[in-house]
Amino acid sequence: MATSSSWFSLVSMYESHLRNTFTSSGLTLKSINIDSDAHIHYWSPIHPLTLPTLVLLHGFGGNSLWQWSKQVQHLSTHFTLYVPDLIFFGKSVTKSSERSEIFQAVSIGKLLELLGVTTYSVMGTSYGGFVAYHMARLWPDRVEKVIIANSALNITSKEVEELLKEAKIENIESVFMPSSPAELLTSIRLMQKQLPTYVPEFLLTDFLNNLLNENRKEKLELLKGTTVGKEDTISILPLKQEVLLVWGENDAIFPLQKGYELKELLGDKVRMEVMLKTSHTPQIENPKQFNNIVMKFLLGMSSS
């Protein structure tokens, strides 16, 4: 008798639903060669818009569909959205051997320049926050406002070791690139506290096969190539833009205290919002509150 995962994929079915969410928000999937080495897939408006531009950058654990589906519908009525898949996520690839988050930032910068997007705000979550920071640092005249969600740019190698030890995890790869259903379940429970007590193994396997194992070798290289969490000292330069930090109070991967410390490092134009009863993915766990916080910041409204 065939197993459930051998004849259909719940993950693929749900991703089709996510695609519909993007298309119903006026976005369409496109692709472009940004140079002779790299090819990027991205979502952008079907029809030209005259709204302010906002770029959304996802983290590990999937592509742009999985991490911004709760935002695009709400934000697309106020902003011209560009939602790329970072290199080696989705169908975005490169022949280059570079693997740092700075390389990701340069790649997205090239994409926007080719598309004729001259000024924009940028929002990144977790790994995407690393990329957003470097985009703001590299192009202060292009990037208008910056939103960084649960992204501890300031974490040290010693702190990473301590967090792994506390969570009883051997290495960071098992958190961001789990290789078994058991590792995936542990990773999900670290990122989101509000989960069912039981998750069937076939569903975890389905998720691994249809999402995490795509470009697995290259994604592991991205983790090794990331500069964050590799040094004992912190080298964060202040940003010239207005910055919003959004943090889940119960984040077990990048603890809230790192958010407060990052706020002091990024300069005088930084605001921080803590979302109660959320963890590493507040944009998914409480999208209504997350979207309201983001909208107030981007539209220049005072936070209540």
TrEMBL record:
PANTHER family to which the protein is assigned, alphabetical: SI:DKEY-122A22.2 (PTHR43139)
Residues covered by the AB hydrolase-1 domain: 52-287
Superkingdom assignment: Eukaryota
The name this protein goes by in its record: AB hydrolase-1 domain-containing protein
Gene3D superfamilies assigned to the protein according to its UniProt record, in alphabetical order: alpha/beta hydrolase
A UniProt-annotated Pfam family: Abhydrolase_1
Entries under InterPro entries matching the protein: AB_hydrolase_1 (IPR000073), AB_hydrolase_fold (IPR029058), Meta-cleavage_hydrolase (IPR052370)
Organism: Papaver atlanticum
